[in-house]
Specification:
The complex is a heterodimer of chains A (about 350) and B (about 325). Chain A is α/β, with parallel strands linked by helices and about 350 residues long. Chain A contains 12 helices and 12 strands. Helices cover about 40% and strands about 20% of the residues of chain A. In chain A, strands 3-4-2-1-5-12-11-6-7-10-8-9 form a 12-stranded mixed beta sheet, sandwiched between helices. The two termini of chain A are about 15 Å apart. In chain A, about 55% of the residues are buried. Chain B is of the alpha/beta class and about 325 residues long. Helices cover about 35% and strands about 20% of the residues of chain B. Chain B contains 11 helices and 14 strands. The longest helix of chain B is centred in the first third of the chain and has 19 residues. Classes of the chains: A alpha/beta (about 350), B alpha/beta (about 325). Chains A and B meet through helix 7, helix 10 and helix 11 of A and helix 9 and helix 10 of B.
Chain lengths: ~350, ~325
């Protein structure tokens, strides 16, 4: 392990009114996290100092101006300090446009630094969409915001939960719109992105499964024809391009089969198809990965958890897993982009 | 409870080219039941050969008339109905003749229940492809039961572990689902679910309605069905005194149900429920019929032709179907001392 490259990760602090800062404080006290990466927090130093006190994590917060000043020593939480939270005005557990605006600025800076090659990847804490909107940033979430900041037009959401990886052809659109968007070009894009991402997660020959859209995958056209018209031809095209793809498989069995190890990832057609599968596993902690960006980005799979903010009880597991996965992906990219 | 005091359930083998006979025999091999007596209504020859395949000894009393069968006092017995043209059939190969035998046995058993000679019916799986009575083709068991029991209101409800489920748009293309979600269809589904839960003996059931769109439409941002169709139905159901919550995002409704927050869930479409259920890997799924003059249950799975004759079929769902029918029969007719 000591010989392995330790990627430099830009960790955004998230919404200051939520449990993000506390989760970041706990996460950076984890020796396993320190062993695999060089973390730097993009946030507000005073808020991180408060989080340290709330959680009782021992250590020190150090505000830095530039990455070059970072030491990455254990016990020190180094923060690129944007000075954008007035702590005396912040009420934890409530939607606050100040925190929404600040959260946007962390993401913007972290993305710029990663795009510029100063950091290896961005790992994001939870933001609150309403706070973001109230601050004047109208995005439906992280994914859309990052896509815009990176100028990426074809992105996809992948959830990683235990052994289950699920990427989504559509996400935050109505069911009817989702059905209309299940078309060959988009499906092929998501298959390609999934194949690339799974390789980055150290699977040499990804076996991908594709869910059908309709019950029983349409049962030969009886319950819908999108499988015949769009999904099956796309799978054939993906195979011609060299991908190992199986499907369309009935939606109610494809995710279980993937979880059981028959496939390395499954492609879901719509938001709930994939999310129901992931959430029913009963695994409380997962990682959200954005595919299709020019940078590596992983994220916690939970919200700001306002109910726990300020109490020091929020669980850091999802952020720890997000950092570990970003680490795997960064090391893979480095091995394959810098041979020898 | 003496055998005589236990409810008597008629059990049919379903499609005998599938695993129906096997799962019935496997339940029988578990020995006498505390909750009911079983009367297997079948061609005794078929049952005997199934015991042979499983290497078990056939030791059930066989009767030729229902009067004799009822008079018996054994935990399980056979009512022999010599049936069909069995030469046409082989295990693992669906055939209209097997479908006919299965449907006719089901109807015969249901009629015994109508006449009060048995307390309920449990049937092993059959499939729609071979569902004939005489030359008439049926779409599903509900259609058969509605017609033969002259009870047009019969509906099926699934019981999954301890959770009941009603699905509004089951076997239809997904793109047709939004059109089928109306205040009327949602309210009907809530009322059906409520009725099933009361029928099962719950005093004050808690119901949930799944949303159609991701994040339950997020206040109309990603779909309006929650606002325009689902919420009004929920309000109306509440006004009628039903304890129903929703619309709840589909990716959390079963998580909450399994934590015990709800006794039943109304789903909008097939996979909403089925993905959740398969991933959770929990127990048995039983179909029970409500608004029916008689108690009828069945395991939720198909005849599993690929497993027929191999002795590997799982009989847990069949046993669960018998348990549900016995429970309902005891509720309906408390044992006489």
């Amino acid at each position: 392990m000591s010989e392995e490259y330790k990627p430099l990760l830009a960790i955004t602090m998230g919404d200051a009114a939520g449990s993000g800062p506390e989760i970041v404080a706990k996460t950076l006290a984890d020796p396993e996290v320190r062993a695999i990466c060089r973390p730097v927090v993009i946030g507000d130093a005073a808020t991180m100092q408060a989080a340290l006190e709330i959680t009782g994590v021992s250590g020190e917060v150090r505000a830095i101006e530039k990455l070059a000043a970072a030491s990455f020593q254990d016990g020190i939480i180094e923060v690129i300090d944007l000075h954008n939270i007035q702590l005396d005005r912040l009420t934890r557990g409530r939607i606050d446009p100040m925190a929404g605006k600040a959260a946007y600025e962390y993401i913007k800076l972290a993305t710029d630094m990663t795009l510029a090659g100063e950091c290896d990847a961005i790992v994001t804490s939870a933001i609150n969409k309403e706070a973001l909107n109230k601050a004047g940033y109208h995005y439906d979430g992280h994914t859309q915001l990052l896509a815009e900041l990176c100028g990426a037009s074809n992105v996809a959401m992948m959830l990683v939960s235990g052994k289950l990886r699920v990427s989504h052809v559509t996400t935050h659109v109505s069911l009817l719109r989702a059905i209309e968007q299940v078309r060959p070009e988009r499906i092929l894009t998501v298959l390609r992105l999934t194949d690339e991402a799974v390789r980055q997660m150290d699977v040499a020959e990804p076996r991908l499964a594709v869910a059908g859209l309709n019950p029983h995958s349409g049962e030969g056209g009886l319950f819908g024809d999108e499988e015949i018209k769009y999904i099956t031809p796309t799978i054939e095209e993906a195979r011609r391009q060299g991908m190992n793809v199986t499907g369309p498989l009935p939606p109610d069995s494809v995710f279980l089969r993937t979880y059981e190890g028959q496939f390395d990832a499954a492609v879901a057609m719509y938001h709930d198809q994939g999310h129901i599968a992931v959430k029913m596993l009963g695994i409380t902690h997962g990682v959200n990965v954005t595919l299709g960006l020019p940078i590596i980005r992983t994220s916690v799979d939970h919200g700001t958890n306002f109910g726990k903010a300020g109490k020091g009880t929020a669980d850091p597991t999802s952020l720890i897993l997000s950092i570990k996965l970003a680490g795997v992906m960064c090391r893979h990219r480095r091995r394959f982009s810098c041979p020898g | 409870m003496k055998n005589k005091d236990k409810p008597l359930l008629a059990v049919t083998l379903g499609d005998i080219t599938g695993t129906g006979p096997e799962i019935v025999v496997k339940v029988l091999r578990e020995g006498p039941r505390d909750d009911c007596r079983l009367l297997i209504i079948c061609d005794a020859e078929v049952l005997r050969s199934t015991f042979d395949i499983l290497g078990a000894r056939f030791d059930l009393p066989v009767f030729q008339s229902i009067e004799e069968a009822i008079a018996g006092d054994t935990p399980a017995a056979v009512l022999d109905i010599a049936q069909g043209n069995k030469e046409l059939l082989s295990l693992g190969h669906p055939h209209p003749e097997a479908g006919r035998m299965a449907a006719e046995a089901l109807v015969g058993a249901a009629r015994l229940a109508m006449d009060g000679q048995v307390d309920g019916v449990v049937y092993a799986p059959l499939v729609k492809e071979t569902m004939y009575i005489g030359e008439k083709k049926y779409n599903d068991e509900t259609q058969i039961l509605r017609e033969k029991l002259q009870a047009p209101g019969i509906k099926s409800v699934a019981k999954i572990g301890e959770i009941f489920r009603v699905t509004i748009a089951e076997h239809v293309p997904l793109k047709k689902v939004p059109d089928l979600i109306t205040p009327q269809s949602v309210l009907s589904a809530i009322e059906l679910l409520q009725e099933a839960l009361l029928f099962y003996g719950l005093k004050s059931p808690r119901l949930a309605v799944a949303a159609l769109n991701p994040h339950a439409g997020e206040g109309g941002l990603v779909g309006r069905e929650e606002i325009d169709e689902i919420a009004p139905a929920i309000q109306e159901a509440r006004a009628k005194g039903i304890d129903v919550s929703g619309p709840i995002p589909a990716d959390t409704v079963y998580v909450r149900a399994f934590k015990g927050q709800f006794n039943g869930v109304v789903n909008m479409y097939h996979d909403q429920a089925n993905i959740a259920l398969k991933m959770a890997g929990f127990g048995e799924i039983v179909i029970l019929f409500v608004r029916s003059p008689v108690i009828i249950t069945t395991p939720s799975h198909g005849p599993a032709y690929g497993k027929a004759g191999k002795g590997t079929a799982d009989h847990n769902n069949m046993r669960a179907a018998i348990e549900v029918a016995a429970f309902l029969a005891q509720r309906k007719k408390p044992p006489i001392k």
